[in-house]
Design brief:
Shape: rod-shaped
Strand content: under 5%
Helix content: over 70%
Number of domains: 2
Number of strands: 0
Distance between the termini: 86 Å
Radius of gyration: 37 Å
Largest sheet: none
Structural class: mainly alpha
Number of helices: 7
Length: 165
């Protein structure tokens, strides 16, 4: 029996041993790596009595190395992504209802405010700065806009029942 026939027979035994301890895909990979090591580093070992223990020793080292690598990478007790339930991206119905009620209260409270406050809030929501609002409202001082903003926010809070919630 030549070395290639011995390695072919040995491959089946190595694969069976590895498969009993790890997944089939990993076992096949480790078997191939073990045979590559035997072929490259130990070409002079031809006796079956020496080759079998050597092959299984190399395989054990490869399996231990693979185990350490998966543990180090955090893959050890990882769950499959396919088995996890998908998260609902939307808010739950109670949160949606609560938010809609707050928006309705806010719109009703803004409608009760005077024209100046409604315009001020509209421009703030459009992203305009206080100096820009000053020019739009035709005021000489930006401090006037700050004061109006403070008063309008107080009025809005009072019309909402002294609570934003």
């Amino acid at each position: 029996m030549d070395r290639n026939q011995i390695l072919a027979a040995l491959r089946e035994r190595i694969l069976a041993f590895a498969t009993s301890r790890i997944s089939r895909d990993q076992a096949e990979d480790l078997t191939q790596e073990t045979l590559a090591v035997l072929h490259e580093k130990y070409p002079t070992v031809t006796e079956l009595t020496e080759l079998v223990p050597l092959a299984f020793q190399v395989l054990r080292f490869k399996m231990l190395d693979a185990h350490r690598k998966t543990f180090r990478r955090g893959e050890y007790n990882q769950e499959s992504v396919d088995e996890l339930p998908l998260a609902d991206p939307g808010a739950d119905p109670a949160t949606q209802l609560d938010q809609q009620q707050r928006v309705d209260r806010l719109i009703a409270a803004i409608a009760k405010l005077g024209e100046r406050c409604r315009e001020l809030f509209k421009w703030k929501l459009e992203g305009k700065s206080f100096p820009e609002i000053q020019k739009l409202m035709g005021q000489n001082s930006v401090n006037t806009i700050y004061t109006w903003d403070l008063r309008c926010r107080k009025q809005l809070l009072a019309s909402m029942g002294s609570s934003w919630e």
